[in-house]
Amino acid sequence: LWFWKISYDTIYLKSVKYFCKELMEEMNSQHPGLTGLRNLGNTCYMNAVLQCLCSVPPLVEYFLSGKYQAALHNENGESAAAFGCLMSDMWHGEFDSVSPEVFYSVLGKQYPTFSKMTQEDAQEFLVCVLNELHQALKKVRAQLWCFRDCRSVKETSIITQLFEGQLSYKITCLECKTTTDRPESFTILSLPIPSKSACSLQDCLECFFQQETLTKNNQIYCSWCRSKQDAAVKATITKAPQIIIFHLKRFEWQGRRRRKLSTNISYPLSNLDLSPYSSPLFYKNAEYSLCAAVVSFERHPLRLYEV
C-alpha cells in the first residue's frame, strides 16, 4: 500500500502536475501514461511494481524532464538509464503496451533472482529497484560539521527524498530505567497482521508501534548495568516520508511450515493519520492519501499480481 502525504501534494505537486499537463499536451497521444507492460513470463509482480513507480508524479517529472541524466553515475547508471527509457515509453502512450525486457535484463545482472523468469515476491523486487535507482542517482550531501564527524555525511537521491523515513526506537532498561534512542531509516514498513479474520490498516499500525518487552534470549546489553537485562522497546516515526509504503506480512511460520494469512484488511482512501505514531515534533502534516496498491491473489497453480 502506497500513501502520499497530503501536505506535500498541495505544495510540490502543483508544479509537478503543471509540468505533466504541459508534457501531455505536447504528446501525440490520447492516453499518455496509460500504457500496459507485457508479461515476459511470470513477471506480473514486476510489472505491478513498475506501474506504481511510473505513476508517482515527482518521479515522472524527474525522469521525463531529463534531470536524472545529470545525476547518473557511470559505474552503475545503466539501471536508471533503462528505467528512464521505460518511463518515457510508458508516458508517451504510442502503444497500448510496451516490453520492460531491457530494464529487467539490466536489473537481472545485479540481482540474478529476478532474471530467472520465475514468480518472486513483489516487495523484494521493489526494495531492489529502489536501491538500484538510489545507487545510480545518489549524491553526497555534506553537513557543516562533517570534518569532525564522518557520520554526518549523507547520501541523498530522488529516491530518499520521496520514500525514505526514519524511526526512533526508545530502549528502556527495566532494571536501571536508563533509556537510549536508536535511529533507523526505512523505505518500506513491514506491518504484522494482528487478526486471522478481519482487521484494518490502523490495527496493523497499532500492532507495529505498540511497546514490546524483550526478555530471555532477546535481552539487551545495558552499558550502565554492564550486563544483559530485560528491556522495553517502542518505535516512533521521527521523519515521515513524502510517500510511505506499507508491506503487509501475510505469511507466518507454524513450526517448519509457512502459512499465508488470508485476513481481509480494510484501509482508507484518504486521511490516514500517522500522528499517533509520530514524534510530537512531527505531528503536523502527518495525514496521507492512498496513491497505489499492489495486490497478490492466488489462482492455482500461479500467484498473480495486479495494481
From TrEMBL:
Matching InterPro entries: Papain-like_cys_pep_sf, Peptidase_C19_UCH, Ub_carboxyl-term_hydrolase, USP, USP_CS
Q: Which Pfam families match?
A: UCH
Entry keyword annotation includes Cell wall biogenesis/degradation: no
One example of the protein's molecular function in GO is: cysteine-type deubiquitinase activity
Q: Name one GO biological process term.
A: protein deubiquitination
Report the superkingdom from the record: Eukaryota
Q: What catalytic activity does the UniProt entry give for this protein?
A: Thiol-dependent hydrolysis of ester, thioester, amide, peptide and isopeptide bonds formed by the C-terminal Gly of ubiquitin (a 76-residue protein attached to proteins as an intracellular targeting signal)
Q: Which UniProt keywords apply?
A: Hydrolase
Every USP domain range = 35-307
UniProt keyword Kinase, yes or no: no
Q: Which SUPFAM superfamilies match?
A: Cysteine proteinases
Q: What is its EC number?
A: 3.4.19.12
PANTHER family recorded:
INACTIVE UBIQUITIN CARBOXYL-TERMINAL HYDROLASE 50, UBIQUITIN CARBOXYL-TERMINAL HYDROLASE
Q: What is this protein called?
A: ubiquitinyl hydrolase 1
The organism of origin for this protein: Otus sunia
